[in-house]
Amino acid sequence: MRMSEEDKKKKFDKQRKTLLKTKEKRKSQRPLVFELKIDTSHLNKEEQIKLKMFFVEAKWIYNHVLAMENAFEYDSKSPLVKVLNKDREIEERKLKYLPAKNRQDVHNTLKWNIKGLHSTKKIGKKVGKLKFKSEYTAIELSQYGVTHKITGRNRIKINGIKRYLIVRGLQQIKSQYELANGKLIKKPSGYYIKLTCYINITSDHIPRIKNPSTGLDFGIKTTITTSVGEKYNISIGKSERLRRIQRKLHRRRKSSKNRYKMQMLLRREYEYLNNCRKDKANKIVSKLLRENQLVIMQDENIKGWHKGLFGKEVQYSALGTIKSKLQKSKQVLIIDKYVPTTKRCYTCGNMVEIGLSERVYHCDKCGLTEDRDIKTAKTVLYEGLSSVNYIPIPTEHREITPVETKPLLQTSGCGASIV
Ligand SMILES: [Zn+2]
Q: Which residues surround ligand 1, an ion (CB under 5 A)?
């Protein structure tokens, strides 16, 4: 039986109302994302095939819709898609595994992408084209209770697979969290479910903070130096395992099965190293934000570093991740990249030319002699505190003003006053 026009309108209105309600509720909540690993060892053959084919079919749909003249006209109810086969000929295939709701979501994601590109183009930015995918790695689970559901201590049920899946990591989700959408993810190391939860923001929780403010210097040798002299080295280089796999890979015959196996191992190792890097970045960022009320950093051009001299070192360090995480925080103040923080002396304002390899900074005017990186971090702190666009945090939390910090910054052995 088909729905009448009136019923359709009613349904639409109801949907809109719940959407607005949720939007209002989310204002007093913050999201948390948990990654749960699916334990595939207990799945039977059929279930393993299903899980694999979900991603294959999602890819088919994506590419099929992208090849259509009007991507918005695709009917997700139809089970037929056109696919290029091995000989690059068009072939019609029938979708068997991916449930209708997920098919619709693949289509919706693509529609959003197109709309996003369109609006970027509208404001005059250059945009590229959406490309065909050779692999689809993230399937939307758009509605908790419909597409996915927690059914036990370590069990999640997803739409399309009859039996529950056993997952690792569910203990992180507390009962007061509100469960929302998720994603089914395929990685070299296996399948995962990323689950978004919302928790209410409570205003009575005020964390204890040690320092009122700190300046940061990003470098190549020791990746981060703070103005109190803490140094973090966060570079994670190639592992011995990675080298070994790379060596083996080169010895395998091209397009052989063994070579493919090695490639898979290689991707897995890269994923592992990336996770290590991410973990380090997370820990350092949370430590910096926990211990300091205000973090000041300089807007340096990491991309430039990438291209130039330090490509490899930058690639292996978590610097980019750390910077982008810090930039999102309200506790962080960013000073202009053209401020000469390396050259300027923070006690007398003198400019000293210092070479890339010199590790110690010495100022002729006031006699300041200090480790190069710590000196730069202190200059960043000083410049930040005395800049005009001062402090994004509320007044009652301020403990110091820029004027007060001047004597605070003078270290022993440096007697000159600020001119
Ligand atoms: Zn000086």
A: 345, 347-348, 350, 363, 365-366, 368
